[in-house]
Design brief:
about 280 residues; 10-stranded antiparallel β-sheet; 8-stranded antiparallel β-sheet; 1 helix; globular
């Protein structure tokens, strides 16, 4: 699908079938090879992508190569994770408003990727590994703002699942909101994260090896809202001037990983994005 083309699907038939504009596609396996430096932007497809928490990844990663945009984690790195206000897992992200021209609170956006996620276990304990698509406000660290949500692969002790989770913050709780789908199905190779106006999302994950129309994968689907109990956060009529924490001015999209020790730290994981595309509902 060429950049700027339209597709239909993901919402039934007839006049109600939505049309999606393909905003941009990244072919990471054919990009110029380079490694990221923490906090320093690298331009790909005319968009600045930035790596954070880089020290938790293996040396010379994240990096772009013939394998794609790759992040590797191993036993040599310090413990890291995305949980509540703890936002220390390696990430690569870009401002969504840089990608989608005129991006506003009324837009519905689909972010999709094709990925390769593998875990190498050692000894008797594989720890907790996670990696996939996510959106956040750009803050990272061991005591950050907790404004994020993700959809990705979760692996522990050889069991692979698909998972979605959102961060801590007012009205959200302690970070436990996590929905596990596709348990035992092996790692997902396709993720579709649809961002609705406000802070609601729908995440779909599957073993597909090609892009699917937004909202058409039905086997492993979850839905969420970053602020389920924050009606007081609306400063005007809904849809007029809501003060949601994730806004066009600060919302970033990208890829996250983490490796949290569970007993012995003796394993490793590789997370590679081969293709990414962003679509807008029109």
């Amino acid at each position: 699908m060429p950049i700027g083309g339209n597709i239909t699907g993901g919402g039934g038939g007839g006049d109600d079938t939505p049309t999606w504009e393909v905003v941009q596609v990244w072919e990471w396996t054919t990009g110029t090879s380079r490694a990221f430096v923490d906090g320093v932007s690298e331009a790909f497809g005319g968009i600045d992508w930035k790596s954070n928490n880089t020290s938790y990844a293996d040396t010379d990663y994240p990096a772009v190569s013939a394998s794609g945009l790759e992040i590797r984690l191993s036993s040599s790195g310090a413990d890291n994770r995305w949980f509540s206000y703890v936002q220390t897992g390696p990430v690569v992200s870009a401002l969504l408003s840089d990608i989608v021209s005129g991006y506003s609170d009324s837009d519905t956006i689909s972010v999709q990727c094709l990925i390769d996620f593998s875990v190498t276990t050692a000894g008797t304990n594989s720890g907790y590994f996670n990696g996939g698509l996510f959106t956040f406000d750009g803050n990272v660290g061991a005591s950050a703002g907790g404004i994020w949500n993700y959809a990705g692969n979760f692996s522990n002790s050889g069991s692979d699942s698909y998972a979605t989770r959102y961060g801590g913050g007012p009205g959200v709780g302690d970070g436990n909101p996590v929905y596990i789908v596709g348990t035992g199905n092996g790692p997902a190779s396709f993720i579709d994260l649809v961002l609705f106006p406000g802070t609601s999302w729908t995440a779909s994950m599957s073993a597909d090896t090609e892009f699917q129309d937004p909202l058409t994968v039905t086997a492993s689907v979850s839905h969420g809202n970053m602020e389920p109990s924050e009606s007081s956060a609306i400063t005007g009529n809904p849809g007029t001037s809501p003060s949601f924490a994730l806004r066009p001015s600060n919302r970033r999209i990208g890829f996250f990983t983490y490796y949290q020790t569970n007993g012995a730290r003796d394993s490793a994981a590789t997370f590679a994005i081969t293709r990414l595309r962003v679509l807008r509902r029109v």
